[in-house]
Structures are given as C-alpha cells and as structure tokens.
Amino acid sequence: MTSVQVDKEHDGSEAAGQAPEEGYQRGLGNRQIQMIAIGGAIGTGLFLGAGKAIEKAGPSIIVAYAIVGLVIFFIMRALGELLLYRPVSGSFAEYGREFLGPFIGFVTGWTYWLFWVVTGITEVTAAATYVQYWNNHIPQWAAALVFTVALFGINLISVKIFGELEFWFSMVKVTAIIGMILIGLGVITLGFSDAGDTASFSLLWSDGGFFPRGIGGTLMTLQIVMFAFLAVELVGVTAGEATNPKKVLPKAINTVPWRIGLFYIGALIIILSVVSWTNFHEGVSPFVAAFQKIGLPAGAGIVNFVVLTAALSSANSGMYSTGRMLRDLALNGQGPKFFTRLSKNGLPTWGTGVSVAMMLAGVWINYQWPGEAFNYVVSFATISGMWAWIVILLSQLRYRAKANRGLLPQSEFRAPGSPYTSVFALAFIAMVIVMMGVDPTARISLYAAPVWAIILAVGYLSIKRRNEAALSAPAGAATGASAKAGETPGKTGKDDGAQR
C-alpha cells in the first residue's frame, strides 16, 4: 500500500492503531516481537565493541550508556506514536514520505536498505571468522556462503520461521548476559573463583576514579555507544506483519528502559566490578576478559558462540528488513516495480533475493580486498543508521503538530514529554555527529555520506523525470475517489500485477 493511499479521509477504516492491508501475512506474535525488540538492542556492539569504549572512558562508560539509553527510549516512543497512528511495514520511510515529503521517504528507504546490506555483509563475514575459533581449516568464504544461503532459505519460507529464529537467537544473547550477571554477582558477594580476592564494586572508582579519562573521554565514547544501539528501531519494520500491532508494539517499546538497564548498564557494572577497567582493550570482548579472570575454562568458547549468534541474528534481520524496504519503495514508485511482488506466503522474495545477492558480492569483495576501500563502505552503516532515527523524530514532531490541530487522529500511544523529548534527542544526535567529525577514528563514517546523497539525488531526479506524478504529490495528499479507490496518482490500478 502506498503512502498516498492512506488518507481515506480517516473515516474509521484505518483508525489509529489499525494497520492498512499491505498483502503481508501477520505471522509475528507477541513472544517473537518482544524478542526481536530485545535482540535489536543487544549485538556485537556490546559483546565486542564495549571493550574499546571502556578503554577510552573507564567506568564512566556506564553513564554514557545510561544517557544514550534514555535518548534511545525517546526515539522508540516517538516511533511508537507513529506506529499506533498507522502501523505499516515501510515504517519510518513511510512516515518520512508522509510528513517530510517524497524525497525524504526516498532517501530514508534506500539509505536504510543500504545500511542493512552493508551490515549483512559485515555480520556474515564476522560469523565466518568466529567459526574458525573451533576449526580454522574451514575457509572463511565457505562458512560465509553457507550462512548466507541458510538464512536466505529461512527468509523464503515464512515470516513465522524468521520470527522463531530471531526468538532463539535473542534467547541465546539474553541467557548469556543474565548468566554473566549472576556469576559475577556470586564472585563479588561470595568471593569464589580466581577473581574472588579482588572483585569488588569499589573497582568502579578505585583505579583512577570513576572518570579516569575525564569528562571529555566519556563524551568521545558517545558515538561508540550510539552505534551499539543501531537496529533497535527494527521493531518498527515488523509492524506490517505483527498479529496485533495495537497491543504488541507498545509492549515491546515500553520494555526498552529495563532492557538497556539490565543488559547494558547491569552487565557493565558487574563486569567492571569483577575486572578492573584497565584490563580492557579494543578488539577484546569484555565478556571474554571477565570469564578468563573468573577462571572458567569454557568461558571463551561460550562467548564466541554468543557472538556468533549475535552476528547471525543481525544478518537475519538485515535480510528481513531489506526486502520490506525495497517493496515499500517500489509501491511508491521509487523503485523497480518487480520488487512489489509477493510470494504465495506473502514474502517480498524479489527484494530479499536482490539484497542477498549484494551481500554475497560483498562477502567476496571482503575476502579478496579487505583493505581501506571496504572499510569506508562499512563505516557508512553507522551514519545511515542514525539517519533513520532523525527521520523518526522529525516525522513524529510533524505528526503531533497535525494531530494537535485536528488534521489527523491522535495516536493511542503518545510519546511522553513530546515535543521536548524529541527535540532533545535530535540535538543529542547532532552533537554525536559533530563529535564524529572531531574524532579521527570516527570521521571516516562521514566521508561517504555526501557521495551517497549525490547518488540518491541523481536517482530521485531521474525517477521524477520519468514519473513525476508518483513523486511530486506529498504523502497523504490524495483525496476523494482516487484515494478511496486505492489508486496512486500517476499509476493505474493494474500497474504491475503484484499481489497486494
């Protein structure tokens, strides 16, 4: 369903919280959506990336995760308000198109698609390297190929299978973190294991203080922490396939604070109380270091398995998301028409297949030329992920303004403190982007953005020249008979024969 088909004068057929029909099968239940939301907030950014952040900030990294966690909650509540107004699979690309204009929707859809393609490339390649921990005779390219084909096959069966796989991937990550917290608490309070003599909550401030690198050191880790939360917004893409979005989505979003509190802040407090922050370094998992200090011989293998599942979970989510984004773009005249087609199981097979083909090409490129050129592409994923957050916040502000004027129905899940919370989150993201430009190691993420913007501008103008009506009308502008008939301006009702 295109964004210009949704107006229907809001006569009750598509009231807030009731999703329009998009052709997808609503096969994701509460249990699966909840775990997808949890899994989106827990990834390699915690299991591996936290080591670099701890080295730069010391124990004060806990404060950084708490502040960023609050901002993430503001973003998710803004997304939740939009989802209950109109839960669609295109999610923030659809909202950007409706409230910020067709060009923003175009940029958001293609940028988020590229984000997941690049993320899929890196995660599948990472998973292949993790396998070598157990058997280094398996070629990296072979493991990457097997993982990619297997995940693609799962995404072709049904959305229920995807949701079930994500459920168990997330369960592994959650179990590992809870296990680490319980073991760490036992070491600190009961004093058993090799770390029992030195483990103490006083380690949070005894080695150089709570801010050993100063406030500046803590601020410079904010971009690292932000990157760790990329993909938390994935729950919005599942809206079009949730069995009961009006009930399920608010529950998933409202769990964000305790997920961040337990899995990030709680885990880091325990780890930094078991092992002094001076023992953590970039490229070394804090979980591995903690298990080694405790003296568990199987600890490294356990963490390697958890990180493997985290990488596969991210790649699986990427395949799911890319197909939906490409179909949403195609339905709005902003992508090739064949992406609109659905399989008999209601899956966007063409969009997913093309995305997976690019992921396979990326794995081959990474194997052949693992140099700086590939690193430039990979680093772009971070800034593109934050673009989605910016669009969510701006769209929510525009929606709230219209709803307050009575031009649109009020959402049943309003963001608390808005518009102030949304403005604060936008200002925070802007500050992080500025800091990325200051930090030489993070600045690389900004170099590719202008190039990608030029490519998108050229593509948009090219499409507009061929089909100006499809792109020139603001989202939601259709009224009267054409909107009620479900027609998109510039198209006929039989444009591509796709299943809708």
Helix-strand layout with pairing:
Elements lengths: L29 H12 L2 H4 L2 H8 L3 H25 L5 H10 L1 H30 L8 H18 L1 H32 L12 H4 L7 H6 L2 H7 L16 H10 L1 H19 L11 H9 L4 H33 L17 H20 L3 H33 L15 H19 L5 H23 L1 H5 L7 H5 L16
Helix pairs in contact: 1-8, 1-12, 4-12, 4-13, 4-17, 4-18, 5-6, 5-17, 6-7, 6-15, 6-16, 6-17, 6-19, 7-8, 7-15, 7-16, 8-13, 8-15, 14-15, 15-16, 17-18, 17-19
Fold and architecture overview:
The protein has helices at residues 30-41, 44-47, 50-57, 61-85, 91-100, 102-131, 140-157, 159-190, 203-206, 214-219, 222-228, 245-254, 256-274, 286-294, 299-331, 349-368, 372-404, 420-438, 444-466, 468-472, 480-484. By secondary structure, the protein is an all-alpha fold. Mean pLDDT is 78; it is low at 1-21 and 473-500.
Can you give keywords for this protein?
21 helices; disordered C terminus; mainly alpha
In short:
This protein is mainly alpha-helical and 500 residues long. The chain is built from 21 helices and no strands. InterPro entries: AA-permease/SLC12A_dom, Amino_acid_permease_CS.
Low-confidence stretches: 1-21, 473-500
Order of helices and strands: HHHHHHHHHHHHHHHHHHHHH
Q: Helix proportion of residues, in percent?
A: 55-70%
Global outline: globular
Strand residue percentage: under 5%
Largest sheet: none
Average pLDDT, rounded to a whole number, is: 78
Family: Belongs to the amino acid-polyamine-organocation (APC) superfamily. Amino acid transporter (AAT) (TC 2.A.3.1) family.
Keywords: Amino-acid transport, Cell membrane, Membrane, Transmembrane, Transmembrane helix, Transport
Protein name: Amino acid permease
Transmembrane segments: 35-54, 60-79, 99-121, 141-162, 174-193, 213-235, 256-274, 294-315, 347-367, 373-397, 418-438, 444-463
